[in-house]
Amino acid sequence: MPELDPTRERRITASQVSTLLSGDHYRIQNLWLRIIGDERYVPDDFSSSWAARYGLHVEPLALDFHQEATGMELVERGEQFFHPSRPFVSATLDAFRPVDSTVVDVKCVHCLRDIDEATAFYVPQMLVQLECRQALNAALLFVKGGAEPFEVPVYIDADFRAAVWQKIDEFWHCVESLTPPVPLLFPRIVAPSEWRFVDLDGDDPPNWSPQMRELLAEWDTTRETAHAHERVKIEIKSLISDHIGEVVCGCYSIKRDRRNALTVRMRGG
Question: Model pTM?
Answer without folding.
Answer: 0.65
